Every structure is written in C-alpha cells, then in structure tokens.
Task: structure prediction
Amino acid sequence: MTNRKIPHPLVALIPIVALIGLLAVVIAMFGSDSLSGGSQIALIIGIAVCVIISTVFYKVPWKAFEKQMSKTMEEIFITVLILLVVGMLSGSWMISGVVPTLIYYGVQILSPKYFLVSACVICSLVSLLSGSSWTTIATLGVALLGVGHALGISDAWTAGAIISGAYFGDKMSPLSDTTILASSSARVDIFEHIRYMTYTTVIALTASLVIFLLAGFGVATSGAVNVEQYTHGLSEKFNISLWTLVVPLLTGVLIAKRVPSLIVLFASSIMAGIVALALQPHILAEVAGAGNLATTATLVKGLFITYYGSTALDTGFAALNDLVSTGGMAGMLNTVWLIICAISFGAAMIASGMLESLTQVLIKRISSRTGLVSTTVSSGLLLNLTTGDQFISIVLTANMFRDVYRQQGYESRLLSRTTEDAVTVTSVLVPWNTCGMTQATVLGVPTLVYLPYCFFNLLCPVVTILVAAIGWKIKRVAPAQSVKE
Result:
C-alpha cells in the first residue's frame, strides 16, 4: 500500500456516495424490509464500484481484494458463530420462561407517577435480555404507549421513555447484534466492550431516568387493563417461577469470571434448555406441534426447534404473542448476510487504499484525545445520516478509525465504545434510517416528534465526548504495542 499511489479523497468518496444513493433507493422501496436483501445488494454494487475504479485507474490487482476479504472473513468467523449461538440463546431464554418471568414481575411496578421511569426501566430490562430494541418496541412498547395515552401522558414523552430504555438494552446486551458487531469490528472481546461501555452508558441512563422521574409527577388516572392482560396471558401460558432466574444469575457469574463469550452464550443456552424441559414441557410440546403430548421425543424436538427455528405461541393476546415469538438461529441469518456484505465493502475500501485516503484527511484534523473521540462521533453520526443503516455505519466507523486509534496509542475498546455511543443509539433518531423509520411506524409517533424526548439516545454521544475530555478510564498504550493483531 505504501509503494503505490492511493486515490484522492474525492475519488475515495465515489463508492460511498454510490452506496448512499443505492441505500436511499432501497429504503424508499422496501422500508423496514430493506435488511432482508436490498441493503445487501446495494453493498455488493458498492464493492463493484470500488473494485472497478481501483483496478482500471489505479491498477490494484484483484488478488489484493481477495486477500483482504479473506483476511476479514477469517476475523469475523467467531462473530458469525456468536450470532448463531445468540439465536439459540434468545429462543431458549424465552421458551424456558426466563424472559416471561421478568416481564411478569416487571410490568407490575407500573404506577401513574412513576410510569415514564418505569416504562424506561422495563424496556431496558426486556431489551437487555432479548438483545433486540425492535422486538421490545414493537410489542411491549406498543402496549406501554397505550397505557401512557390512557394516563394522559403525551405520546412523545412515552415514546421517548420506551425508545431510551429499549436502546439501552440493545446497546448493553451480549445478545444484541449491534453490540457484537461493534466489538468484533474493533477487535474487542464482547464482554470487555460491554464493561467499558458502562462508564458512559450508566451516566446517560441515570440522567435520563431522573428526567423521566421528574416528568412523571402530577400525572394520574389508570391503565391497569393492559398490564393485567400481560400478566394474565403470561401466567396462563408459562409456568412463571423465580427458579427461571437461576439462568441469568449463573450467566452473570460466568461473565464475571471472564469466560470466553462463545462459551458463556452456549452454556447459557444449554442451561435455559434444561429449565425449559423442567418447567415448560407443555410449551416445548406446542412448539413441536404435538399439542399436549409431552413425550421425551416431543420435548427434545421442541427444544431443538427453539434453538434453530422460529416459534409462535398463542397466549390469547396478540401483542403478547409477538413478544414471546422467537427466531432462533435462523432468525440471525439476515444479520449474518448483511454483516458479510458490509465487511466485504470495508475490505474492498481497505484494499483499494480509499479508506486510507479518507482516514488521512481525518487524521490531519485530530490533535488531541478529545478531538479523536469527537471526530469518531461526528463520523458515526454522519454515516447514520447518509447510509440509513446502523449496521453499515458501525462497520464503516470502526474500519475508518481502527488504525488511527492504534497509531495514536489508544485502546481498541475506546473505539468500540465510541462507535456504539455514536451510531447504535442515534440511528433511531434519523427519520430515513431503517431504525427511525421502523419505530415511528410501529409506535405511530413521527421520528421528529419523539426525538427531543429520547434523552438516553441524545446524551450518549455527548457523554462519551465529555468522558474523553476528562480522560476517565482512558489508558494509553505504546503505539508499537497497539498495532499487534
């Protein structure tokens, strides 16, 4: 790379501009379904544009692209395995009764004065356990919005509390695809990434909860019917038991002992499967399509389906049906597909020298630790605005700055944390981003209406810059040491 001319920054922008244009068309055509194939095609075309320009005008050999893509694919192999195991875990935690039990007890803390803060906390817990802000908002979030409306609380405030909580859980959950993607893109262990994010995320969430708590005073009337529907539906369908909470407790122990991520997630899936066999045999029989015939073969079949396939249970309450449905390993395939395409685009940009060209422009503007983090945040926000997708923005941000952080002697976990603080939580604030578009449609509240009340999402980028300015828990390492893979 150093012995040949790299493209001019304006030339390097061509594949990105082409990608942005294609994504805009895809989002306009497919909306929230753009992740099911349209975005992947846009990425592949973006790769083609990058390769054509590089091979025709800069004589970059095709072998250079093959080598970089192979290297990148090797690096994300464990990430793909983790995503598949996450599918196992999300299905088994739901069917075993772990998540239903927490929802059952969680919704009962709702009260008029504390509704907003409760909604934020409940969505935080459910999203933390499920790893999905989309599922949390589309199910429990819709119900909470109805309760808030009945209580006389502005839909904008309620939507802000719901989204703030859901994206906290999405950002901090080891089950979240964005958390996995951000940590793997920056080459950081997922649990180390989560631990390091607590320094900024807890501050942002605490400030948000205080705001929601103060805003909730003076609001009165009732909306207990929705809560009763949830608790009744859960207790009728699942064996609600505190014994199910042994699974997250033991998982927490494994995480505290710093057991490798893949082993923790797999072990937790197996523990949840055992709990499902012991406490929810009727659910496993239903998943297997055998009605109430809970034979050993039926239970094992139901457990296997829970791990690898989709499950749909009838609780008698439509919103609850959506909440307790799962996708298993198969439900992660679209994400895996998208990640492979996004990573390949990043690899093409690296092999062509285009990413290096753009990075050099950014480096010239960086003169301090605060400047480095601020530039990363600005780039992440800009990519969210331009690409319209948080997955692509995460990959591009991490790829653009990974070597910069190493060369300046900063830990990779600072990059992974800053990427999440800048990209994951702000995607829902962009009206034409897949996240913003989806949540506005699901909740029936326009993005620009709920945006001012999503305090957690707004505070995270600010807090991460302030923490960088102070230098709290930010360590320097020797640049020579930081370039080691």
Observations:
- The chain has a mean pLDDT of 85.
